[in-house]
Design a protein that fits this description.
Structural class: mainly alpha
Number of strands: 0
Number of domains: 1
Largest sheet: none
Radius of gyration: 23 Å
Protein name: Carbohydrate ABC transporter permease
Order of helices and strands: HHHHHHHHHHHH
Family: Belongs to the binding-protein-dependent transport system permease family.
InterPro entries: MetI-like, MetI-like_sf
Main location: membrane
CATH class: Mainly Alpha
Number of helices: 12
Keywords: Cell membrane, Membrane, Transmembrane, Transmembrane helix, Transport
Shape: globular
């Protein structure tokens, strides 16, 4: 009986912790987004005297010539292009690293793992992008996002791919399949669980990215959703109701994506870890 009570206590503590860490901040954002500018300045959890969420939404969307709509377009394009390149490049690299066994393989694995440890260098990256004429371009930012997500995605793909028997490769080669045809026809369709995991996790990370667009994709026309937060706060005045309305709007897409694909994320990561 004591063990059961202990288990119930742990579960209750976990639920309470999740409520404090997730639901309370979300409630604060929602309540503040409903308030007027005067009420929002109090920064309290009180329910607004008059709900004006819809008016705040219209003000945020119309602000600075509908900048938020342009930001959603830029963030969506960045996310889709980065994911497409990331899935193809990382899956192919993981396939080579997992199947290839020679003296260079441990060194390649070391450098890939180092990508998770060594922090990115902002100034040298800007210099490189500027030299190849990709600074302030969507292509350059996509390359940065792919490079930063490369180590994590390769490790997931490689762990999952270790469970695919080599006999499949050998049988395909005997049937006359070349390297690219073998991978895209036979191997890649088997990677759907881990691919779904990578798409969801990286989509949320890229869509919510603040630092990389700020440094590598500056300009009002290149704004992404996270950078629109600058519109409503400054050194002298802050429109808290509009700021939190903006936060609410840009939080909804990744939150919905994460909720609907949560099971796929857990299944893909656990399957990869067990099979690897």
């Amino acid at each position: 009986m004591s063990r059961r009570l202990r288990k119930v206590g742990i579960e209750a503590a976990a639920v309470l912790a999740s409520a404090v860490l997730f639901w309370v901040p979300l409630y604060f954002v929602l309540v503040t987004a409903m308030k007027s500018a005067k009420e929002a300045s109090d920064m309290s959890l009180k329910w607004p005297a008059k709900i004006q969420l819809w008016q705040n939404i219209k003000d945020v969307v119309a602000f600075r010539d509908h900048m938020l709509l342009r930001a959603f377009w830029n963030s969506s394009a960045l996310t889709v292009l980065s994911l497409a390149a990331m899935v193809v490049v990382c899956s192919m690299a993981a396939f080579v690293m997992q199947r290839r066994k020679d003296k260079a393989t441990p060194w390649i694995s070391f450098f890939v793992l180092a990508g998770l440890i060594i922090p990115p260098a902002i100034v040298p990256t800007i210099w490189v992008l500027d030299e190849i004429h990709l600074f302030k371009t969507m292509t350059g930012l996509v390359l940065v996002e792919v490079a930063l997500g490369f180590p994590f995605c390769v490790m997931l793909y490689r762990g999952f791919m270790a469970a695919i028997p080599r006999d499949i490769d050998e049988a395909a080669v005997v049937d006359g399949y070349g390297g690219y045809r073998l991978f895209f026809t036979i191997i890649f369709p088997l990677l759907k669980p881990v691919t779904a995991t990578i798409i969801v996790t990286q989509a949320v990370a890229i869509f919510n990215d603040f630092t990389n667009p700020l440094y590598f994709f500056p300009g009002s026309k290149n704004v992404t959703v996270q950078l629109t937060l600058y519109n409503f706060t400054s050194q002298f005045i802050s429109q808290w109701n509009l700021l939190f309305t903006d936060i609410l709007l840009i939080t909804i897409p990744p939150l919905v994506l994460f909720i609907f694909f949560n099971k796929k994320i857990v299944a893909g990561m656990t399957t990869g870890s067990v099979k690897g």
